[in-house]
Amino acid sequence: MRATFMYGAGDVRVENVPDPRIEAPTDAVVRMVLACVCGSDLHPFHSMPAAEQGVPMGHEFIGVVEEIGAEVTGLAPGDLVISPFSFSDNTCVFCRDGLHTSCLNVGWYGGGGAGGVQAELARVPQAAGTLVKIPSDVDEALLPSLLTLSDVYLTGWHAAHMGRVAPGSTVTVIGDGAVGLSAVLAAKQLGAERIILMGRHTSRTDLGREFGATDVVAARGEEGVARVLDLTGGEGSPVVIEAVGYMPAYEQAYGVVRPGGIISRVGVPQYEEAPVGFGSLFGKNVYLTGGPAPVRAYLEQALPEVLKGAINPGRVFDRTVTLDNIADAYRAMDSRAALKVLVRP
Fold it and tell me: Which pTM does this prediction carry?
């Protein structure tokens, strides 16, 4: 089969490799229908050291089950399925608490022996707990929105949920990438009355307005903080969603948050050390939350909303490529020429 590997910063290749096979009785093999490139894939695209062995890429997909292991229940060959970006058994104590990304059997596509899913086929460990069936006759026009339930929309939902967004809330979303825009949509779904989107790419912030943003702040740094404070009467934002992952975004987050407010981070942090002292979190009595989204916990709740057309998060996809041209997708997203790119194997 063909599969995508990264060999270093900017070096993405599609190669022929052996087809995956059942390695454990809890595995399934799935043929890809749709995959995509994630904003988090751009982090190694910027900084990964050159290597002789490529890293398998991709963690979001819809596919058709080809084969199942002897212990896989609830699935059969031919089923159309969505996969969260991590796999889990859906039965352990952490899964029962809705923390599937902390499952006792958690794993990640591209690591730990599981391949990436920017490929023609993928092995799915813990298949019964991970894969969620969708109707095989679903309207093909809904597939992009269904694909967002594997990661991007439900990461935005997780950010809003952890930020305790409720009817009447004021929310500031930092970042106009696909996750930030998804967080805007999720906040609107949860009843936020005012949503301030901090982003400077007009084509993206225009979509953010359509998703529910009431205000857009293009300025960054101190100027951006001052603008949000002005919009909130000097009080700051009770909920701040940080959907970028870089230190300047975190600094903006604690700059605009209201005393006693919540910062919910879902941008994968590209740092380990960050201010938590008096001038950042402590002095304002700020709550800090967020993390990798346990999308399996939310997926079945969101699925009917997409199927009945109540939400259309697939609008974040603005370009489609074939697997053979996936390097173009990375370059387009890296240069901001594309927001998020679909991949059709």
Answer: 0.96
